Amino acid sequence: MFSMMSLFPLVYFLYVLIPLGPLVYIFIKWWSNKESKPVDPNLGIKVITYYFKTIGYHIFLIGFSLILHDILKGGSKNSFSIGFGILICGSIVYIIHLMIIQRFFKDTVFSITKRIYNAFNLIFVGLISITSMSICLSILLGKRSKGFEAPLTFFIVYVIAWIFQSWYFYKPLFKKEK
Hints:
By secondary structure, this protein is mostly helical. It is 84% helix and 0% strand. The radius of gyration is 18 Å and the shape is elongated. Residues 1-5 have low confidence and may be disordered.
């Protein structure tokens, strides 16, 4: 069960999520200096808090994908507990950091950190949705059904996440039209 399903999250964290925090911080500092905008006095702590909220979100999505994969494969009780453990871990990390953000960072003057992480989440769930869809279609059109469950679960979970992230990301544009 854990062959393809464990390799993807490992690559996901090593190459994408780990360098995200420092890169966002450097980008915002550079952008603020370039545009001669005031620098957010809480930039470092905001970047770290949004970073861990983002990691919690993606751990949650991976856990949900593992649970759905086990349901489609008819997995054992032990395999479900792995997915639930990962899902609960992601939920805890996400909720704690969301509460910190809501409590301490409600300012609208310095919202660039929030916008960058929302854009990252939208781009990343979209890329995973497209990738998993192409793998699913390749398997289906190749008339193979073996190994179809893993990309299908990622497709289902990440397309749903993509829809919600898109709604959340584009919501301010719809408010401006009215």
